[in-house]
Write a structure and sequence with these properties.
- There is one protein chain.
- By secondary structure, this protein is mainly alpha-helical.
- About 75% of the residues lie in helices and about 5% in strands.
- α1 packs antiparallel against α3.
- The radius of gyration is 18 Å and the shape is elongated.
């Protein structure tokens, strides 16, 4: 039950982040802010970075609440988790940058640009998958098998939820003239 409540909180944070990313244009507000046409509000780059930091903090809290560990397991696991999170952050930073870029350019994308964008997005997903695979044996040295599996299940569920929220806020790349 704790997981469901925490997931709701995380979903709300993701929705706010996605909302702040949606339908922006560089021409309207410049590169350091995000314009949200629904209500005309502008979110600064700093606001968005604070929101992303809060998401990372909520993710760590969710994992702590749903992955019971002994003290000795925790002492081994959390440094591994912190290193993993720092490496994963690089991929999430790139995914965020791609989403920002897409949000700025989606209305004027050419067919070639749309294909380049989706290839880059898929490359980041592949890199994140490879990182998770790299960390399976490392985490399993800190935690027994079922707990290590639980960690990766939690990590993947949370990541998928964030990805879904982000993707749902980005407009589809449609041919000109189609709604």
């Amino acid at each position: 039950m704790k997981l469901r409540a925490a997931v709701v909180v995380l979903a709300v944070l993701c929705a706010v982040l996605g909302w702040k990313l949606r339908a922006q244009t560089a021409e309207q507000q410049g590169p350091s802010s995000v314009f949200v046409p629904d209500n005309g509000q502008v979110a600064s780059e700093q606001d968005i970075q604070l929101l992303r930091q809060d998401l990372r903090s909520q993710k760590q809290k969710l994992i702590a609440e749903n992955l019971p560990m002994t003290e000795s397991e925790a002492v081994k696991f959390w440094p591994v988790y912190n290193k993993y999170s720092e490496e994963l952050k690089q991929f999430n930073d790139e995914k965020f940058r791609l989403a920002m870029e897409y949000g700025q350019d989606w209305a004027t994308l050419t067919d070639d640009q749309a294909l380049i964008y989706i290839r880059r997005w898929l490359e980041v997903d592949t890199d994140a998958h490879q990182l998770r695979s790299k960390y399976v044996p490392i985490v399993s040295q800190a935690l027994p098998g079922k707990k290590a599996a639980t960690f990766f299940q939690l990590d993947r569920r949370i990541s998928m939820m964030i990805d879904l929220q982000l993707a749902s806020q980005l407009p589809l790349a449609r041919p000109k003239g189609q709604p």
